[in-house]
Amino acid sequence: MSMKLYVGNLSFNTTDDDLRDAFNPHGNVVTASVVTDRETGRARGFGFVEMGDGGDAAIQALHGSELQGRTLTVNEARARTERSGQHGGGRRERY
Fold it and tell me: In terms of CATH, what superfamily is 3-76?
């Protein structure tokens, strides 16, 4: 069963291929993506890796390890929670 991993504290220069290369020795990487800002296209310092197998091994091996001079945070990704008060969530007063 596949496992989606959150990878934090990435260098702003890290690419999808860099992520794939770091996680490949620990199992089958299905996807690897660095999250970028919609407006600027610049990396936001975190990403996600989906592992077909070896997810737990990757967490054990890479959490706290260094990639491109940064200490990684690696854990199982959690489902995104709904945020209230965003984008038309309430009435706004005009002045």
Answer: RRM (RNA recognition motif) domain (3.30.70.330)
pLDDT digits (tens, 9 = 90+) for 49-88: 999 999 999 999 999 999 999 999 999 999 878 766 555 5
Residue type, 66: E
Phi, psi torsion values for 51, nearest 5 degrees:
-105, 130
CB of 76 closer than 8 Å to CB of 55:
yes
- Report domain extents, the chain: 3-76
HEC string of 21-78?
Answer: HHHHHHCEEEEEEEEECCCCCCEEEEEEEEEEECHHHHHHHHCCCEECCEECEEEECC
Name the 3-class secondary structure at 8: strand
